[in-house]
C-alpha cells in the first residue's frame, strides 16, 4: 500500500558542450537541451512529463554545460511549475550512472522512494505514471522503458531481451553486430535508491580489477583493448554497459513497453521531426497551445502549428503543418511555411516559402525567396538549416543546404554547406 | 601619425579557423595577421592605431592591451553597431583620426599582406600634394576586381572600373590608403563604399593619386590565398632577413620554425612552411606548403601539403593530408587517414578518410 509520505524525484541527464557536434550549426548558439521543439525547450518536454507524476518533489538536471547556460531557464521553469528544478553541474562527465552517483546526497535529500532517470534528448510520450505503477508491481531495483523497432534498425541502440510474462530484463547488449532483439532501450528508467549501491559496487569492482592488473604487470595496449572498462576512470559509470548488462537476468531489472512514438534527438533533422511529434501530441494533451486560424482575421493554419504569442503573422500567410514559430518573429504577407522551425527574431518577408527547414535566430528571409529541403530527417543535408543571423536575399533559392551563422546569400545554392 | 585598420566582420571566408579566433588574431607566418600591419605602422612613426570592428570586441580588446604594452603604441577600437561598409567606419572613428595636426592618416584593409612600403607612400603623398593616395598592385586577371585607371607617369587616378569586361588596365586597389583629414568631410556616417562613392569623387577633382605597390601583395582572407600568401611572404623574408628562416639538411626552400617547436629525425620540411609555437613534428614527416598553428602535433611518417592545421590539432601516423585541407582547432586525424581537401570544424576526430573535398561539421 502506498504511503502518503512516499516521495519521488526525477533526474534528467542533459550532457555537455563537448559532446554532440552532430547538432551543429544550431549548437553554436544554444546548448542542445534548450533548443525549442514545438515551442518549448527540448528539456521541458521530459520536465512536463515528470510534473504529472504524483508525489514528485524535485527535478534535477545533471550535465556539464556551464551553469550560466541553464541559470535563467531553471529559475523560470521552477517558478512556472511551482516545483524546484535544479541544475547540477558535473566537473567532468561521469557517465549516465556515474552522474547520478556523484550527486547522490542531493538527490536523496528528500529520502525519495523512487528515482526517475531520463535522457534529455529522447522524444517520446513519457508514460511515467503507468511505468511507476508497473515498477512497483515488479518489485525490482529498476525498470527500463523499452520499445519495439524494426529488426534492421535495432542495432543502432541498446537491445534488450525481456521475459514476455514477467517482463524481467534477461539480457542487454549495446549496439550489437548480430541480431539480438527488436526491443530497444528508450533511455527512460525508474530506480529504487538501491541503484546507488549497485553503481558503487561497479566502481569498487573496477578498482579491484585495476589493482590486480597494476600489481601483475604494465598493461600493454592490446590488453587495454581487450578489457575496455579497465581503461575508464573509476567514477565513470555508464548505465547501459555497466549496470543493465551485469544486472540482467538477476530478478533486479524489469521492462515496461511503450506503444507510442520514440525518437532520439541527435541532429537538427531529428529535432524538426520531433518538434512535429510533440505538436501532434499537443493536439491531445494541450490543444490550447496550438494555433488556429482560417485566413480571415488571422493566418490560415493547417495541421499542428505553434505560434509564440509575441510573433506577428500576416493574415494572408498560410502556416503548417508541423510549424513552430518562436518569439518576436515577423511573418509577412503571402508567406507559406510548411514543416519548419522558425527561431526567435526571424523576419520572413512577403511571399517567401519555407519548407522542411530550420531558420536560425535573427535571420532574414527575403521576398519571394525559397528555403527548402527534401525532408529526409536522417540525411546529412536532408533539411535546410540556416544558422544565426543568416540573410537570404530577395528571390534567392536555398535547397538542401546548411548555412553557418552570419552569412548573406545573394545567390541561390543547392546541396551545399556554406561556412 | 594615426592609422585605421578596417577589421570589419565575421571572417566567414576563413572558417573554420575563425570559429575559434577572430580573423585579425589568426596567425600568419607565426604572428597574428593584424600584428604584421601594426608593427609596420609603428616603424614609420604611427602612434595610434584604431581598429574598426563589429565582432567579438572582448577578445580583441584583451589582445590589444598585451600588444599596446609590448609595442609602445596606442591601440583603440571603434565598434560598428551596424555594418558601415568600407568608408563608414572612417566617419565613425573621425574624432580619433583628427588631432588638429593636419597630418594624413593611413587606412588599411586588415586582410592585406605586403611589404608595407609606408615610408615611400608618405613621400609619394607629400610630392603630389593631392588629397588622397592609394596603393595599387598589378594582377594577371584584373576583371576579377575593381581596376584603377591612372596616368602612368604621375599616378593621378582617372577613374575606377568594377570588374571591367574589356581591358582598361591591370592595376587594382591594394587596400592601403593615405588620406588627408579633409577626406573625412566627404564621408557620412552610414554604410558607404570607399571605392564606389568616395574615391571616384576625389578622382574627379583630380586629387587622388595611386602608387604601384613594390613587392608582393595578397588578400589572405581565404585559405587558398592564405597559402599562396605565405609563399610570397617567406620569399620576401628570404631577401630581407634570411636568418629568420630555418636552415639544415632537412629543410627545403623557405621555412619558418618557431623556436619552441620540435622537429624529429628524418623529416623533410619545405618549401613554404610555417611551424608555430609548441608544435611537435615527429620523425619521418614530410611537410610542404602548409601552416601548423600553435600546439600542433604531427605524428611519425605523416605527409602534409597545401593545408592549414589549426591550433592543438594532431595528424596521425602515416596520415596524408593535402589539397587545401583546413583543420580547425582541436581536430584529430587518426593514424593512416587520407584527407583530400577536408575542411573540418573544431573539436572533431577524423576516423575515416576524406576522398574528395568536403566540409566536416
From TrEMBL, chain A:
Listed CDD domains: M1P_guanylylT_A_like_N (cd06428)
- Enumerate the InterPro entries for this protein: GMPPB_C, Mannose-1P_guanyltransferase, NTP_transferase_dom, Nucleotide-diphossugar_trans
PANTHER family documented for this protein: SUGAR-1-PHOSPHATE GUANYL TRANSFERASE
Every Mannose-1-phosphate guanyltransferase C-terminal domain range:
301-418
Q: Which family does it belong to?
A: Belongs to the transferase hexapeptide repeat family.
Q: What is this protein called?
A: Mannose-1-phosphate guanyltransferase alpha-like isoform X2
A family per Pfam: GMPPB_C
| Gene3D superfamilies found in the cross-reference section | Hexapeptide repeat proteins, Spore Coat Polysaccharide Biosynthesis Protein SpsA, Chain A
Q: Which Gene Ontology molecular-function terms are recorded? A: nucleotidyltransferase activity
Start and end residues of each Nucleotidyl transferase domain = 10-210
UniProtKB/TrEMBL annotation, chain B:
Q: Where is the Mannose-1-phosphate guanyltransferase C-terminal domain?
A: 251-360
User: Can the keyword GTP-binding be found in this entry's annotation?
Assistant: yes
Ranges for domain Nucleotidyl transferase: 2-233
Record protein name field:
mannose-1-phosphate guanylyltransferase
**A Pfam family reported for this protein in Swiss-Prot or TrEMBL:** NTP_transferase
Similarity field: Belongs to the transferase hexapeptide repeat family.
Report the EC number(s), separated by commas if there are several: 2.7.7.13
Amino acid at each position: 500500500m502506498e504511503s502518503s509520505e512516499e516521495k519521488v524525484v526525477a533526474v534528467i541527464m542533459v550532457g555537455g558542450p563537448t559532446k554532440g557536434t552532430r547538432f551543429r550549426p544550431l549548437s553554436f548558439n544554444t546548448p542542445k537541451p534548450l533548443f525549442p521543439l514545438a515551442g518549448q525547450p527540448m528539456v521541458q518536454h521530459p520536465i512536463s512529463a515528470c510534473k504529472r507524476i504524483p508525489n514528485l518533489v524535485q527535478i534535477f538536471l545533471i550535465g556539464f554545460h556551464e551553469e550560466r547556460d541553464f541559470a535563467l531557464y531553471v529559475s523560470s521553469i521552477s517558478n512556472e511549475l511551482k516545483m524546484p528544478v535544479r541544475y547540477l553541474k558535473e566537473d567532468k562527465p561521469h557517465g549516465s550512472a556515474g552522474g547520478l552517483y556523484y550527486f547522490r546526497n542531493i538527490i536523496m535529500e528528500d529520502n525519495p522512494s523512487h528515482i526517475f532517470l531520463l535522457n534529455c534528448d529522447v522524444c517520446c510520450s513519457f508514460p511515467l505514471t503507468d511505468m511507476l505503477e508497473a515498477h512497483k508491481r515488479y518489485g525490482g531495483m529498476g525498470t527500463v522503458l523499452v520499445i519495439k523497432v524494426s529488426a534492421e534498425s535495432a542495432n543502432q541502440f541498446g537491445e534488450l531481451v525481456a521475459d514476455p510474462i514477467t517482463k524481467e530484463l534477461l539480457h542487454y547488449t549495446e549496439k550489437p553486430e548480430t541480431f539480438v532483439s527488436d526491443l530497444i532501450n528508450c533511455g527512460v528508467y525508474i530506480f529504487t535508491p538501491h541503484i546507488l549501491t549497485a553503481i558503487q559496487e561497479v566502481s569498487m569492482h573496477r578498482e579491484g580489477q585495476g589493482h590486480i592488473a597494476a600489481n601483475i604487470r604494465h598493461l600493454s595496449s592490446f590488453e587495454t583493448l581487450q578489457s575496455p572498462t579497465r581503461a575508464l576512470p573509476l567514477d565513470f559509470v555508464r548505465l547501459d554497459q555497466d549496470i543493465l548488462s551485469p544486472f540482467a537476468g538477476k530478478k533486479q531489472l524489469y521492462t515496461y513497453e511503450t506503444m507510442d512514438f520514440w525518437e532520439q534527438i541527435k541532429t537538427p533533422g531529428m529535432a524538426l521531426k520531433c518538434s512535429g511529434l510533440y505538436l501532434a501530441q499537443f493536439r491531445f494533451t494541450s490543444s490550447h497551445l496550438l494555433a488556429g486560424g482560417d485566413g480571415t482575421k488571422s493566418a490560415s493554419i493547417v495541421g499542428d502549428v505553434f505560434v509564440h504569442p509575441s510573433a506577428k503573422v500576416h493574415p494572408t500567410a498560410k502556416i503548417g503543418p508541423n510549424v513552430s514559430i518562436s518569439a518576436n518573429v515577423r511573418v509577412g504577407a503571402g508567406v507559406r511555411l510548411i514543416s519548419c522551425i522558425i527561431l526567435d527574431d526571424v523576419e520572413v518577408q512577403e511571399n517567401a516559402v519555407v519548407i522542411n527547414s530550420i531558420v536560425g535566430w535573427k535571420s532574414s528571409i527575403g521576398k519571394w525567396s525559397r528555403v527548402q529541403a527534401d525532408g529526409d530527417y536522417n540525411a546529412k543535408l536532408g533539411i535546410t538549416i540556416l544558422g544565426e543571423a543568416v540573410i537570404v536575399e530577395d528571390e534567392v533559392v536555398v535547397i538542401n543546404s546548411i548555412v553557418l551563422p552570419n552569412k548573406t546569400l545573394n545567390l541561390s545554392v543547392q546541396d551545399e554547406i556554406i561556412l | 601619425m594615426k592609422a585605421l585598420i578596417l577589421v570589419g566582420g565575421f571572417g566567414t571566408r576563413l572558417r573554420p579557423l575563425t570559429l575559434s579566433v577572430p580573423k585579425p588574431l589568426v596567425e600568419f607566418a607565426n604572428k597574428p595577421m593584424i600584428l604584421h600591419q601594426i608593427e609596420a605602422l609603428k616603424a614609420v612613426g604611427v602612434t595610434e592605431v584604431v581598429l574598426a570592428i563589429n565582432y567579438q570586441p572582448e577578445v580583441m580588446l584583451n589582445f590589444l592591451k598585451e600588444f599596446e604594452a609590448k609595442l609602445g603604441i596606442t591601440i583603440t577600437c571603434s565598434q560598428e553597431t551596424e555594418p558601415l561598409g568600407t568608408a563608414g567606419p572612417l566617419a565613425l572613428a573621425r574624432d580619433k583620426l583628427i588631432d588638429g595636426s593636419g597630418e594624413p592618416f593611413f587606412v588599411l584593409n586588415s586582410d592585406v599582406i605586403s611589404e608595407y612600403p609606408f615610408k615611400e607612400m608618405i613621400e609619394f603623398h607629400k610630392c603630389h600634394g593631392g588629397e588622397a593616395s592609394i596603393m595599387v598592385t598589378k594582377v594577371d586577371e584584373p576583371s576579377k576586381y575593381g581596376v584603377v585607371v591612372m596616368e602612368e607617369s604621375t599616378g593621378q587616378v582617372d577613374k575606377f572600373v568594377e570588374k571591367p569586361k574589356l581591358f582598361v588596365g591591370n592595376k587594382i586597389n591594394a587596400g592601403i590608403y593615405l588620406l588627408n583629414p579633409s577626406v573625412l568631410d566627404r564621408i557620412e556616417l552610414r554604410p558607404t563604399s570607399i571605392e564606389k562613392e568616395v574615391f571616384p569623387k576625389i578622382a574627379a577633382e583630380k586629387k587622388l593619386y595611386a602608387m604601384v605597390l613594390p613587392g608582393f601583395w595578397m588578400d589572405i582572407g581565404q585559405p587558398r590565398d592564405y597559402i599562396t600568401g605565405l609563399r610570397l611572404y617567406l620569399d620576401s623574408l628570404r631577401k630581407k632577413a634570411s636568418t629568420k628562416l630555418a636552415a639544415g639538411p632537412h629543410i627545403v626552400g623557405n621555412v619558418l620554425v618557431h623556436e619552441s617547436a620540435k622537429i624529429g629525425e628524418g623529416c623533410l620540411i619545405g618549401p613554404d612552411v610555417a611551424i608555430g609555437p609548441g608544435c611537435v613534428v615527429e620523425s619521418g614527416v614530410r611537410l610542404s606548403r602548409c601552416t601548423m598553428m600553435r600546439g600542433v602535433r604531427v605524428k611519425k611518417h605523416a605527409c602534409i601539403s597545401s593545408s592549414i592545421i589549426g591550433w592543438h590539432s594532431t595528424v596521425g601516423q602515416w596520415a596524408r593530408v593535402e589539397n587545401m585541407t583546413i583543420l580547425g582547432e582541436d581536430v584529430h586525424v587518426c593514424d593512416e587517414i587520407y584527407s583530400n581537401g577536408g575542411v573540418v570544424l573544431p573539436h572533431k576526430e577524423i576516423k575515416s578518410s576524406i576522398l574528395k573535398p568536403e566540409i566536416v561539421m
